[in-house]
Amino acid sequence: MKIEFAAVPSTPGALVLPVAKGALHAVIGGRKGEAALFASATAAKFEGEAGGLAEAFVADGDSVQRTLLVGVGDNADADWEKAGGAVAARLLTNAKAAAADLSTASPSPAAAARFAAAIAQRAWRIDTYRTKLPEKQKPQLAEVTIAGAPDGADKTWKDQDAVTAGLDLTRTLVSEPPNIVYPASFVDRVTADLEGLGLEITVLGPKEMGELGMGALLGVAQGSTREGRLLALKWSGKGAGDPDLALVGKGVTFDTGGISLKPGAGMEDMKWDMGGAGAVVGAMKALATRKARANVIGVCGLVENMPDGNAIRPGDILTSMSGQTIEVLNTDAEGRLVLCDCVTWVQKTHRPKTIVDLATLTGAMIIALGNEHAGLFSNDDGLADQLLAAGKASGDLLWRFPLSDTYNKLIDSPIADMKNVGPRGAGSITAAQFIGRFVDAGVKWAHLDIAGMVWADKPGATYDKGATGYGVRLLDRFVADNFEK
Questions:
Q1: Dist CA 307 CA 264 (whole Å)
Q2: What's the rounded Cα separation, in Å, for the pair 298 and 216?
Q3: CA-CA distance, 481 to 8, in Å (whole number)?
Q4: Which residues of 120-149 are buried (b: 16+ CB within 10 A; e: fewer)?
């Protein structure tokens, strides 16, 4: 979608008028078609609430001007984001162009940029495999003009546009079927998409990972004919040197549960078990596209978890790259096995001071938080506060959970250094404690369990049903606020 900033709304097509709560009369009073607009607002019970809509067709000489009133609530950035998403949802399949006159509600530069970004983000769809899509259901909205924006909004929009590009990549990867996106093709897709952005790319196959002793990751991968991969994307926005921050993503491109086979109902959803890796590559694309002044590395552990005759069994013991041994009690607790070797690899190879991992790790997290927040676990209060703040600012919300020695003891094994699952209670916490055992002393670390957030059964402000792209906005804001100063 083409989005441009202009002084006046000159693009032919639908006219969009943002309305703050309680400001309806100030916006449309005395405007051409005033009676029709008031009637439409009354019929829709529209009062300027964030994301609310009222639509009218106003006579303009021999033609008709389609006019959309959209509520921006209290003028907060999040309210403008809801408004932009509502505009895209209404016009996507039935308008080719639109122009929004932001002067009717006077947003801040950041709010104007969020409004424009939400239009582009909410308009994303994947129709690759729909060969008989009716014409009236096909996306048409191709051009949106943003007029009357405050000074600086267009510059802020460029950063938001980079995030949108990252979201597009993440959502596409998460949405693709597992026969199309698997470890090797994930790498091919990402490297092709990121070409020319200045990222240093490293790819490890089974041979290289075997030589490094990555027995935990390779243990998960060994049940599939699709070989595992480690993908690293390094962005050196401050110049040469080790990255200050490592982002590590779980990339299980399909998860059957392995020998501990999942129930058949809903197993098709497990194509998005690589949502953590998807968020990492999307965030890295956003950082590289907007030339972030930070040194960051993104690492993705990519495997497929299958119940082959060569698959790991409950009772097997794996040796991780760190040298620690793991008793496998449940092969469906595989994400932490992938992450632990990635965390060890990035510490030995690049020595980051801070690590944030993201994973669709536990169903227990969905039981605890539903689909409103991701879970946050951290060994550092300052880092946790930074992530919580970035979550609130970006709209990718987090909720912090505890870590302690008491929980840690729940994964002690009688015959190995640890077991890969604890008791039924505190399942998300013991999963985090497992990963924490592989973090070096002095390294700040946070684990984000995003199991309930990467896929949605109902539309949100910036996404339709399906892949949400959760984590891209959060990580970009986290980097901007804490590593670019």
A1: 13
A2: 19
A3: 33
A4: bbbbbeeeeeeeeeeeeeebebebbbbbbb
Whole-angstrom Cα distance, residue 56 to residue 305?
A: 53
Q: Which strands form 97-101's sheet, in the order they lie side by side?
A: 2-6, 143-147, 97-101, 14-19, 63-71, 53-60
C-alpha count within 13 angstroms, C-beta hemisphere, residue 283: 36
Indicate if 424 belongs to the active site: no
The type of residue at 288 is A
3-state percent breakdown (helix, strand, coil) of the chain, nearest 5? 40, 20, 40
Q: How far apart are CA 41 and CA 24, in angstroms?
A: 9
Q: Is the dihedral of CA 38, 40, 45, 47 positive or negative?
A: negative
Question: How do strand 398-400 and strand 374-378 relate by DSSP bridges?
Answer: parallel
Give burial (CB, 10 Å; 0-12/13-18/19+) of 239.
Answer: exposed
DSSP-derived letter for residue 457 is S
Q: What is the DSSP letter of 263?
A: P
Helix axes 381-394, 472-482, angle to 10 degrees: 120
* Residues in CB range of 454: below 8 A, 6 or more apart: 174, 272, 275, 276, 278, 279, 360, 467, 468, 470, 471
The pair of three-digit structure tokens given for residue 24, joined into one six-digit string? 């309806």
Question: Do 246 and 355 contact (CB within 8 A), yes or no?
Answer: yes
Reported in sequence order, the residue ranges of 341-449 that DSSP labels E, i.e. its strands, are 354-359, 374-378, 398-400, 418-419, 444-449
404-429 confidence digits (pLDDT tens)? 999 999 999 999 999 999 999 999 99
State the DSSP string of 30-41.
Answer: TSTTHHHHHHHH
Q: Phi and psi for 249 in degrees, rounded to 5?
A: -120, 135
pLDDT (mean) for 359-378 = 98
Active-site residue flag, 66: no
The order of strands in the sheet holding 325-327 is: 317-319, 325-327, 418-419
CA–CA gap between residue 452 and residue 471 (Å, rounded): 12
Catalytic residue among 66, 125, 189, 262: 262
Backbone angles phi, psi at 6, to 5 degrees: -145, 165
The span from the CA of 83 to the CA of 48, in Å, is 10
Residue 121 to residues 164, 230, 470, Cα–Cα distance (Å): 6, 29, 12
Question: Tokens for 401?
Answer: 């959970």
Percent of the chain with pLDDT over 90: 96
How much is the pTM? 0.97
**Cα end-to-end distance, the chain, whole Å:** 32
Two tokens at 349? 């190879």
Q: What is the DSSP letter of 92?
A: T
Considering 226, 229, 285, 336, which one is annotated as catalytic?
Answer: 336
User: Residue 205 — very low, low, confident or very high, per pLDDT cuts 50/70/90?
Assistant: very high
